[in-house]
Amino acid sequence: NAGVTQTPKFQVLKTGQSMTLQCAQDMNHEYMSWYRQDPGMGLRLIHYSVGAGITDQGEVPNGYNVSRSTTEDFPLRLLSAAPSQTSVYFCASSYVAHHYNEQFFGPGTRLTVL
Amino acid sequence: GENVEQHPSTLSVQEGDSAVIKCTYSDSASNYFPWYKQELGKRPQLIIDIRSNVGEKKDQRIAVTLNKTAKHFSLHITETQPEDSAVYFCAASRRAAGNKLTFGGGTRVLVKP
To answer: Does B100 touch chain A (CB under 8 A)?
Structure first.
């Protein structure tokens, strides 16, 4: 199993550009989520999904869109990049059967917005 | 919503000493408390977790304690080794929130040989 994969590893954008961060998992996990990690602020939840066709907002959703058309994929779209979105983005997944499930993280995408 | 505070933000210990990281949470309904370790440039990985019906859990050199009344939980690392150097995150969630985790701000632990 590849686990949770993310592409790209690094990305530089100019203010106003849009892009999609990709996340995929091969563990048949129902739950998938996106976090951003900024220095001293831990991991903050952007959006999450409990299954295909179901998404919801997390703590910091503004400026980001998600969709979940398959169990395996959960892309994160930046609509119009801003310097405040410079961060490291992690995707995570887990089973949903009960909420004591370990969340498995992807390797992260380091995004810089100029 | 839930708020998790973590202290200290940095911790330097001599190899072989113990390290303790403390977290407090605000939502009394939270009942699951995992700890993640993140090495430099790597992804967070679960190292230990505790449920609210348990007061203490131990796994080799690491242990976690939970005080539901005071709404705080702690990570204890004994006999620290250089490979314990990393950033540690606590988190909390409650059943009604499904798998959503609220993380603390992290503690950078440096183990000096």
So the answer is: yes
